[in-house]
Design a protein that fits this description.
Number of domains: 2
Number of helices: 8
Distance between the termini: 56 Å
Number of strands: 6
Shape: elongated
Structural class: alpha/beta
Strand order of the largest sheet: 1-2-4-6
Strand content: 5-15%
Helix content: 25-40%
């Protein structure tokens, strides 16, 4: 229809069956690129456009978090926080802590850190906090930073001077109860 009337329609196709990655995605790709044996010339040539195939990760269920039953993995939580805070979508498999300070992602402007282990005991401990030692190491890298952690032991004035934004992990993760 876009080719026929010069429109600029876009759509999101949602497929809930287990064949989405093999059958549905391939059909969409063929329509975009063209189907060699199609009777219709326009379909043979392809309709053009672009296509991105995405999958959803495991749900982060607040009720389970409150009960301490199902804490998300490090990479799942990092992916969720990055998308929530910035709109950047990254596969959880691409987001792993690369150092003791929890660095998991860098954009052109900022570094992102997550101080987290999927353990209630860890989240309730001082190890889950942004402390002075960690903040100084992050500051020494010379880049603006966002740090997600259960708590911080540094005043906001100091963090602001060091260009570090602290974001407290959701209370529901069980570190407060």
């Amino acid at each position: 229809m876009n080719k026929e009337d010069g429109g600029n329609r876009r759509f999101i196709l949602v497929e809930c069956e287990d064949y989405a990655d093999t059958i549905t995605a391939e059909r969409v790709r063929r329509v975009i690129r063209g189907v060699p044996n199609a009777k219709d010339k326009q379909l043979r040539d392809g309709l053009g456009g672009s296509f991105a195939y995405c999958t959803l990760g495991e749900a982060i269920d607040v009720d389970s978090l409150l009960e301490g039953e199902a804490l998300p993995s490090y990479s799942d939580l990092a992916s969720y926080l990055l998308h929530t805070a910035t709109g950047i979508s990254a596969s959880p498999g691409d987001l792993q802590s690369s150092d003791d300070d929890g660095h998991f992602y860098s954009s052109d402007e900022k570094d992102y850190y997550l101080i987290y282990e999927p353990s209630i005991e860890f989240l309730r401990s001082g190890d889950a906090a942004l402390n002075l030692e960690r903040a100084e190491r992050i500051r020494e890298k010379g880049r603006s930073a966002v740090v997600f952690a259960a708590a911080d032991y540094i005043g906001q004035r100091q963090l602001s001077q060091w260009n570090i934004t602290f974001c407290q992990l959701p209370y529901e993760l069980g570190f407060g109860g």
